[in-house]
Amino acid sequence: MSDISLAEMGINFREQKEQTKRLQMLRQRAARCVCRYCGNPLSLRKITYAAYDEAKIEIFCEHCGRIEFGTEPEIYQVAQYFIDEIQYDHYPNLDESVRKRRMNIAMICDILNWGFKNTGLLQAEGFTCSIALDEDTLTEAFAISESDLAQLDKE
Ligand SMILES: [Zn+2]
Q1: What is the whole-number distance in angstroms between the Cα of residue 134 and the centre of ligand 1?
Q2: How far away, in angstroms, is 120 Cα from ligand 1 center?
Q3: Are residues 135 and 124 in the same domain?
Q4: What is the tally of helices (H) and strands (E) in the chain?
Q5: 78 with 50: CB under 8 angstroms?
Q6: How many Å lie between the centroid of ligand 1 and the Cα of residue 148?
Q7: Do residues 22 and 30 touch, judged by C-beta distance below 8 A?
Q8: Percentage of residues of the chain with pLDDT beyond 70
Q9: Rounded to the nearest whole angstrom, what is the distance from the C-alpha of residue 61 to the centroid of ligand 1?
Q10: Is residue 137 part of a domain?
Q11: For the segment 3-53, what is each residue's pLDDT rounded down to a tens digit?
């Protein structure tokens, strides 16, 4: 059977292969990544787009009830620290709320993601090298710099 007759039957191997590749990527991300807004684990869900009359598999955050591409858990952790401890505020015009905190964390996740991607440290499959990170390390580093500052004040 030639390729032409398969195409005539509506069987497109290339398209099918691309679909499988996408699904594989989504499956890996759902298993590895967390929501950029709330940090909760993600799952896969079949979303029906009425306008196109087709169902597509998407990564979904059950907690936020939204389609979410997700971020690496390490990136979320750093972003959370940046907002909660360093108290960066990307939306000064908005009143304090849980929603604003989540929007701020998601914004930092996007920035960090961009930075890691553009330095070759992050790919669609995750980090290209092993990274060491935990909250204690971050807190300690921050405490040291603060005591250093206090020391400088005395001098
Ligand atoms: Zn979420």
Answers
A1: 21
A2: 27
A3: yes
A4: 5, 5
A5: no
A6: 37
A7: no
A8: 75
A9: 5
A10: yes
A11: 556 556 665 666 677 778 889 999 999 999 999 999 999 999 998 877 776
